[in-house]
Every structure is written in structure tokens, then in C-alpha cells.
Amino acid sequence: MTEKLNIFASNVTSQHGEDGILAYIIETLGDSVIRTVCEFGAWDGIVSSNAYTLWHDHGWKAILIEGEPDKVKGLRDNIKGFDALAIERFLSIRGEDSLDAIFKSEGVNPAIGVLSIDIDSFDYHVWKHTGYVNPQVVVVEHNQNIPPGIEYYDPEDSVYLKCSAAALETLGREKGFRLICCTRTNSIFIKEELFDASIFPDATVSELFDYSDITPGVVFTGEDRNKYPVFSRKTGAAVKFLTRLKYRVSAAVKQKKKFIPPPPEVARQIRKMGMDL
Fold first, then answer.
1. How far apart are the first and last CA of the chain?
2. Whole-number Å distance between alpha carbons of 175 and 169
């Protein structure tokens, strides 16, 4: 297949077409898909969910993890009468609040069909350190402002730029997954043994990426509307100065915008991975 899976994009509760894309993947794979989905942060089970249609409309079992008590209350109300488990927990990369540990403590079968990772922070590291939970399809958020030629992820103890689609592609390959689609903010992977080039694109992240949010030469965090510019390539001092000035003024004028430079450990990571400050 040469066309992008984005041609199947549609939304019920997803943000950028993930509902329709997942429906195509699941329908195409047929009975080989395990009818269990796990999503975190799940909010109330509906808002911006990539899992809602599976458990609500198609009878899938759902493991829905959310840390905010007010959201968990809505989540528990919304799943009444469905084969769904609401777990109130803030996810961590390791330890008793890691995804693997939660599945073990709750006695949940680790073999699942779809895993949706969307916590707007250390999504990369959560997937990296998940080994017991064994999904067939993974949906994980990337920073849509980082060009697909850059492999970047924040240090484990920091949240600034989060991670690039290219870094996720490499991680997925290491974990035995094939990248088959990029929506505006999510990378979608399938287990290598389920991949079939006649029904899924055999393409690189650069070919699959959605470029609509790319600003040439500049990367933004996307976190808390921070407009401090990170440069996607080596940049001269004068250009850096003028660009920073432009966005500093913009942040001052538009009060909802921030202008926060990266902490030292993130700055080191940014430079190490080929970007500039």
C-alpha cells in the first residue's frame, strides 16, 4: 500500500482522525486483534479519547488510567454498564506506578490489542520502559513541531520538548514495531509480525509525517503555550537574537503565551541531538 492511512481519518472523540485510522487497522487485521484497549491519561473516557469507540461502540474490554480525581469521577460514571476498568493513578516511568506494575497489581492480562499513550509529558520513556504489557497496536504522542529528521526526546526527569516522531520510530523498531501512520500529534505503530505491505504503508517517518505545524528552523515546546524558540539546526547568533526577540515580544503582548528557556539538562540534550539554542 502506498497511500497514507490518513485517508481513513475520522473523529468521534479523537482529535486528528485516530478513530477512523484505528478502525481501518482493526478491521483489516480481523480476528487476529485482541479486543482489549488501554488508554492513559484517559480523562473522563470521552474527551480526546482514542479508545472510546472501541469499548463504547464495539464491546472491547478497556483499562482506563487517569490520575486527576475529578476526571476519574466522570470516567467511572461514563463506563457504567461497559466492560471497562477505571484506575486512579498518576503513571510513572518506573516503580509501582509504572504501566507494567499497574497491570500486575490489577491482575490484568498483559496481551492487549491497542495501547494509547497520551500524558503530554514523558510518553517516550513510558513506552520505552514498558515490557510486561504486550500491545499489538500502539498510539503515542509526539511533538508535531519537531521535524521528522530529528531524533529527540527529553531527559527522563524533564518535560520540555517531549519527543519527536523520529525518536519514536527508532524506539518502536527496537521494540519490534513498525510505524504505519502519523497524525498531526500521534505516531501509530503495529507489531512487526502483523505488518503487511499490501495493506499498510511501507514508508519512513519523513514520508508519513504531518508537516502542517512545522515552522522552518524553529521548534516550540507546545507545553503551556511556551514560545521560547529552539532551533532545529545550527543557527547564527544574529538570527537567534532576532528570533528570540520576536517571540519574547509576542509572549509579552499575548498574555496567555510564555517565554521559558529550557533547564540546563534539557539544553544539553537539545544540543546533543543536533538542535541549537
1. 40
2. 10
All cell numbers assigned to 144: 508535531
Rounded CA gap, 111 and 103, in Å? 10
Distance CA 36, CA 26 (A): 12
pTM surpassing 0.85?
Answer: yes
Tell me how crowded residue 99 is: count the other CB atoms within 10 A of its CB.
Answer: 25
List domains and CATH numbers for the chain.
Answer: 5-208 (3.40.50.150), 218-272 (no CATH)
Sign of CA dihedral 94, 99, 100, 106: positive
The maximal CA–CA distance of the chain, rounded, in angstroms, is 61
Cα separation, 227 vs 90, in Å, equals 27
Enumerate the β-bridge partners of residue 178. 190
Instruction: Give 174-217 pLDDT, tens digit per residue.
Output: 999 999 999 999 999 999 999 999 999 999 999 999 999 998 89
User: Rounded CA gap, 267 and 115, in Å?
Assistant: 31
The answer to whether the beta carbons of residues 106 and 36 sit under 8 Å apart is no
